[in-house]
Write a structure and sequence with these properties.
The chain is mainly alpha-helical and 295 residues long. The chain has eleven helices and no strands. It is 75% helix and 0% strand.
């Protein structure tokens, strides 16, 4: 394996943090609609994505779409930094020929290991708090006082009431969804190589980068969406006593018993629509950072 400089080992950490900010700015409103639809299920207060969006804007205005965004805005920069940075350091150990670009299979394996072994640890608490805040509806229209005043308050109360166990509710399905980072990178890099005709030195245009990012996001969600539904169900209900679900399998069984297969795809249309601008922006910000920072 070719010796790498210290800068080459840390450069992708900086680029990844920039990408994370882009992801949250573009994708959080769609994510709020997705989580609310997942949490309510097929017999909740919303008739579908459009009704959920309309109700949220009517009752809570644009602010409602960005509920729980502070944590991801700070945390996603850190998470994306770790995600792309760890990947760039794992890949050389998997890559058989260091003198040529990694194959798509090698990239898939390195990214899957990055997500499954490392990223679920910081991501699980962050997404759990985000989901709790996203399904906290306007007090004016529900008549119920908000349980959490914001991200920091939510972290404090969840930990006080349930400790690390509560913060890591839904940890197993989170780990499974994070393994799909392999599909994510496979989709992006495969599309990038198609556009550049396998020329490793070629740079993508902004439009092509947006397209490749959209493909990446679509590949990611197609590979794990039912587990994302289970994860959010477990996280938003984990504060109830006794807990509604004792684990991932019980949660899955209850969703299927109540709603059938369609229950595992609640909010999927919103998610796919979200994945296009959110992940396109992610990779656009990533490539901008790569172009700005020296190699």
């Amino acid at each position: 394996m070719t010796e790498r400089t210290t800068w080459s080992r840390v450069r992708e950490f900086f680029c990844g943090s920039f990408a994370g900010v882009g992801l949250v700015l573009a994708g959080h409103p769609f994510d709020t609609i997705k989580v609310r639809l997942q949490a309510e299920g097929g017999f909740g207060r919303f008739k579908g994505p459009i009704h959920c969006l309309y109700t949220t804007l009517k009752q809570e205005r644009v602010f409602g779409l960005y509920k729980g965004a502070m944590g991801p805005l700070i945390g996603q920069g850190l998470v994306s930094s770790m995600q792309f940075g760890i990947l760039s350091n794992i890949l050389p150990y998997i890559q058989k020929d260091p003198d040529h670009p990694a194959t798509l299979g090698e990239l898939f394996l390195a990214a899957s290991l990055t997500g499954g072994l490392f990223m679920w640890i910081p991501v699980t608490p962050m997404e759990g708090i985000k989901a709790r805040l996203q399904v906290q509806y306007s007090e004016k229209h529900t008549g119920t006082k908000a349980q959490y005043s914001g991200t920091i308050d939510a972290y404090k109360k969840v930990f006080q009431n349930g400790g690390l166990r509560a913060l890591y509710a839904g940890g197993v399905p989170t780990m499974i969804t994070r393994i799909s980072f392999g599909c994510y990178m496979w989709g992006y890099e495969g599309t990038r190589r198609y556009f550049t005709k396998n020329n490793p030195g070629a740079k993508l245009s902004p439009l092509a980068t947006l397209a490749a990012g959209g493909v990446a996001g679509t590949c990611y969600w197609l590979s794990n969406y039912p587990f994302d539904v289970i994860k959010n169900k477990m996280q938003v209900s984990s504060d109830t006593k006794p807990p509604l679900y004792r684990g991932m399998l019980e949660c899955g069984r209850k969703i299927y018993a109540k709603e059938g297969i369609s229950g595992f795809y609640r909010g999927f249309s919103v998610c796919v629509i979200r994945s296009l601008p959110a992940n396109a922006t992610t990779f656009l910000f990533l490539e901008i950072a790569r172009n700005l920072l020296p190699e």
